[in-house]
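Problem 12. The chain below contains 281 residues. Write out its predicted structure in token notation.
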Amino acid sequence: MDPSSNDSLIELRHLTFGYGERRILDDISLSIPKGKVTALLGASGGGKTTILRLIGGQIRAKAGQLLFDGHDITPMSQQQIYAVRRRMGMLFQFGALFADLDVFENVAFPLREHTDLPEALIRDIVLMKLNAVGLRGARDLRPSEVSGGMARRVALARAIALDPELVMYDEPFSGLDPISLGTAARLIRHLNDSVGLTSILVSHELEETFAIADHVIILANGKVATQGTPDEVRKSTDPLVYQYVNALPDGPVQFDYPGATVEQDFGPAEATKPGKSGVPS
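Solution.
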């Protein structure tokens, strides 16, 4: 499946980004379909979180375009970026709640920062968002008083406080127990469908991610290795995709980092034979 631009909320067109001489994304093109849950997968360091940061305007592409609803974010001013961000929600890894604010005030924070709504309306919105994630009763608790899974749900309520069109999830399942993980996955799917969101999910939890995703993109070596429905990706015969999806230790992605040979580092093999000291003379 390759969503057309008319059906896409996000488009990367021949986009390149890197740090110094190291390229993270290399002339990459992909689309995020509207109203769907799209999973960004791939090995660590493959550029998944970088794409989220590019979409949010925290970093800018070196070349190419990044379109949000048809408008290129890359050349926008900071003020224009702020306006676009109001249409986005972000769930950071581990929640990133404000430790000195209770649950209610954490969710109220974006409403107080970005709107002039009266206090009574802010209260109603916060309680509705907390109710959507099953935590209306936890409104007065501090982040230190809730579990890791509950903290993610509070962060999700905060992410949807401004009724965004797009919600981005950066490793939402990391560190969760099986019950909390399943709850978080179902909640992401439910909110996407019931509120009419577009969701981008970065994760290494393949089973849960494949179960809720409509569209899967696997990144490798700065490019799109494959994309499609979960079933299409599972059936891919590409060696790198096959290795990743099946969690195989052997394949294109090697355990050893490229470097000098053993002989070059340690000297001739005779130096470490039984009976030798193991220290080259």
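Discussion. The chain has one domain: 5-256. Students who got a different answer should revisit the alignment rule from Section 12.3.
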